[in-house]
Amino acid sequence: MRNKFSREEFFDLCWEKSIVWFCKSYIVTYQEFKNICKKYNIPLPPNGYWMKRKYGKEFSKPTLPKVTDECDIELLIRTRENSKNSKSAEKLSNINNDHRIFDLVVPKRLPKKPDSIIMEMLSDNPKTHPIVNNCRDFTKRYNYGRISVNATGKPYKRALCFLNTFITVMKSRGHYFLFCYGNSYIVIEGVEISIRMRERSKRVYKIEKSGYRSSTLEPISLLSFLAGQFTKKEWQETTNKTLTEKLPLIIKYLEDKAKEERVWHRENEIRLKKEAIEKKKQEEIEKLQKEEIAMLSLIKQKSDLWHEANKLRTFLIEYKKKVDLSDEIKEQISFGLRKVDWLDPLIQKDDELFKDFDPYKLLRTL
Hints:
The protein is of the alpha+beta class. Helices cover about 45% and strands about 15% of the residues. A hairpin with a 2-residue loop joins strand 4 and strand 5 (about 185-190). The longest helix is centred in the last third of the chain and has 78 residues, at about 245-320. It is elongated and about 135 Å long. It starts with a strand and ends with a helix.
């Protein structure tokens, strides 16, 4: 049986009853309740609120923020019958309605025909990934291999049972698995997430005869499921809670993580495209700047040549006006006027002897 609340009714009830009351009265956990309030933008009482209320102190209750889409909030009333499977049911509802609760129940034994990946893990002669010239290409992925399970004996068998259920459910949801030299990945919407399992262990200390304390890790027959390669997420089995109960959470986390990765990749592609466009614009601007600087430099060179040629021409004309010039001086003046015309960018008279020289560079060496 379910109760429906409007946002306003739920908001008022949140300030009348504690979260513990909600968890006892309805099939909802503490974190799930917080997520509901966050989803529907419902403010919760701050720290110290219930103590003030207990002693009759004044407090200020905020107003309920407005939202564009008003939706009813539905909670399942807790009963003796549904309390046993409540966590699995609620977690499963967070995924979708594609699977029933018993689909996520891990059997104690493997079925007669387990998944092909489990068959590969049970095989005495497993397929190996190719090694070329004693080198392993970790960029390649293969559709056959084993999921890494660091466990032995009964925990290993339980891990196989868990993985068989996990693989079956994930494949039915449209996901698939890839492998690479001992590494295993689940691929969700094109996003690879590394997965593996291990047997938990505890550190046991003992005093040696020498008086020093040493320690060893001893397995405790409880399993852990790990996801991610660099930022790992781990679900640990405890004496009170098996991995089967956490399977809906694992599935939801993996699919949400893949969705986040997809969003990040799309945003990254958009950002890279914008950066490429900006980079191209900047390169075009820099290219144009270089061209104009080169043009300006050429104009300055011609200006310098013109001024120098005019100075030399003025000097030679004034020098020529003097009387009693020797033939040698007259020859120098005639030579100078010819070279000045070669230097002058407005005249640029041909000079067979200086045809391979740059007038500006030559002028700077004089």
